[in-house]
């Protein structure tokens, strides 16, 4: 799958001192500016090392924060212009280091955040943090950690949140409590993601269609529907489908490698659906969710599956979206030389 997935654990950050909160918010605003500046320099072809030096000398006064700002800017590298809406702060965890240089846990409910200074006399602020009980075992292992982790501070509805990127193995160790019902080479589940539904099929390793299931949530594409509520509905629907697949002996999950549509069409309703459809949400959640069910995720290029699905859907008696999910599984099986059941 390429880049290793790092699940995110979120907690509420409580900074009781007004002075410390002011310093933290100033640093977050500066970091936001640094990400935008890094993006601009990156688009001009400036080398990474030079970008980090410029950000350190002009904005952040801390090389590690500057490097982290560059890493955040890379997330938007395809955009021609970047203007972030909210202040933020992030400190990346490097593979050869222990813990985190700038955001460190003193205990499961106390975190230290470095505030850099132009004089070089950096200071640390102490803040309370509240995580859900199920995450405390993970955070406990990050106190005086010997493993690297990334951490960031964000504003949500006027409140501060601490986001911690933890190694997948650590996340699984504490949260993968499900019994192993799946066989090592069990069935496969294919998914077709849309803005208002998720279509899933279950297929055996000979390519035979065993089951289909669809979750609908058309309300999320309606005008004015809250984004967070829409995301919550989509993610809960995805959990229900994965849980259903797991209890039906699925061990491999085939997902389309998504690319956001770049063009818009005349229909305002369709455009709204494209805007509301958070393409990365599904994949990010799948990458965190599947390991908890002791499963494996496979990314497959979905090119032309929608076109191929039209004639096949009539033979199978299924809608086009469900047929596309089936074709993804068949494409995966063919790519691994398991079967040769379907010819274009």
Short description:
The chain is α+β, with helices and mostly antiparallel strands and 344 residues long. The chain has 2 domains: 8-175, no CATH class; 187-335, Nucleotidyltransferase, domain 5 (2-Layer Sandwich). The protein contains 10 helices and 12 strands.
Tell me, what's the shape?
elongated
Q: Into which percent range does the helicity of residues fall?
A: 25-40%
Fraction of residues in β-strands: 15-25%
Estimate the mean pLDDT confidence. 85
Q: Roughly how many Å is the radius of gyration?
A: 23 Å
Report the span from N to C terminus: 26 Å
Strand order of the main beta sheet, please? 2-6-7-1-5-4-3
Counting helices, strands and paired strands, the structural category is alpha+beta
The major sheet is characterized as: 7 strands, antiparallel
Topology as a string of helices (H) and strands (E): EHHHEEEEHEEHEEEHEHHEHH
DSSP summary: helix tally: 10
Number of beta strands? 12
Q: Report the uncertain regions.
A: 261-266, 271-276, 340-344
In the residues, how many domains can be counted? 2
Topology:
Layout: E1 8-14, H1 18-43, H2 48-60, H3 63-74, E2 88-91, E3 103-107, E4 110-115, E5 123-130, H4 136-142, E6 150-156, E7 159-165, H5 168-175, E8 187-193, E9 197-203, E10 209-216, H6 227-246, E11 250-256, H7 268-276, H8 279-292, E12 296-300, H9 305-316, H10 320-335
Parallel strand pairs: 8-11, 11-12
Antiparallel strand pairs: 1-5, 1-7, 2-6, 3-4, 4-5, 6-7, 8-9, 9-10
Helix pairs in contact: 1-2, 1-3, 2-3, 6-8, 9-10
Describe the protein:
Mean pLDDT is 85; it is low at 261-266, 271-276 and 340-344. The chain has a seven-stranded antiparallel β-sheet with strand order 2-6-7-1-5-4-3. A five-stranded mixed β-sheet has the order 10-9-8-11-12, sandwiched between helices. The protein is an alpha+beta fold and 344 residues long. Helix 6 (227-246) runs parallel beside helix 8 and helix 9 (305-316) packs across helix 10. It has helices spanning 18-43, 48-60, 63-74, 136-142, 168-175, 227-246, 268-276, 279-292, 305-316, 320-335, and strands at residues 8-14, 88-91, 103-107, 110-115, 123-130, 150-156, 159-165, 187-193, 197-203, 209-216, 250-256, 296-300. The chain folds into two domains: 8-175, no CATH class; 187-335, Nucleotidyltransferase, domain 5 (2-Layer Sandwich), CATH 3.30.420.10. It starts with 7 loop residues before the first strand and ends in a 9-residue tail after the last helix.
């Amino acid at each position: 799958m390429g880049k290793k997935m790092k699940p995110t654990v979120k907690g509420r950050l409580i900074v009781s001192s007004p002075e410390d909160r002011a310093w933290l918010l100033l640093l977050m605003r500066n970091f936001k500016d640094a990400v935008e500046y890094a993006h601009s320099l990156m688009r001009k072809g400036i080398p990474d090392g030079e970008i980090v030096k410029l950000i350190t000398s002009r904005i952040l006064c801390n090389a590690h924060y500057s490097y982290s700002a560059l890493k955040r800017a890379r997330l938007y590298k395809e955009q021609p212009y970047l203007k972030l809406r909210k202040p933020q702060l992030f400190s990346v965890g490097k593979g050869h280091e222990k813990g985190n240089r700038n955001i460190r846990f003193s205990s499961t409910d106390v975190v230290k955040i470095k505030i850099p200074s132009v004089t070089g006399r950096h200071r640390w602020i102490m803040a309370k943090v509240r995580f859900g009980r199920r995450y405390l075992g993970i955070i406990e292992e990050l106190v005086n950690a010997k493993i690297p982790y990334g951490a960031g501070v964000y504003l949500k509805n006027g409140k501060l949140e601490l986001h911690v990127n933890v190694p997948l193995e650590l996340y699984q160790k504490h949260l993968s409590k499900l019994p192993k019902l799946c066989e090592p080479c069990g069935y496969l589940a294919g998914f077709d993601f849309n803005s208002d539904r998720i279509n899933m099929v279950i297929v055996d390793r000979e390519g035979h269609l065993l089951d289909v299931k669809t979750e609908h949530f058309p309300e999320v594409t309606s005008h004015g529907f809250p984004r967070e509520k829409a995301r919550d509905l989509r993610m809960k629907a995805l959990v229900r489908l994965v849980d259903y697949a797991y209890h039906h002996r699925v061990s491999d999950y085939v997902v389309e490698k998504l690319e956001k549509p770049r063009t818009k069409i005349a229909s305002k309703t369709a455009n709204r659906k494209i805007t509301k459809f958070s393409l990365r949400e599904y994949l990010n959640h799948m990458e965190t969710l599947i390991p908890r069910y002791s499963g494996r995720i496979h990314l497959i290029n979905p090119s032309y599956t929608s076109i191929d699905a039209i004639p096949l859907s009539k033979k199978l008696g299924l809608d086009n979206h469900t047929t596309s999910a089936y074709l993804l599984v068949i494409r995966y099986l063919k790519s691994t030389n398991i079967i040769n059941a379907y010819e274009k």
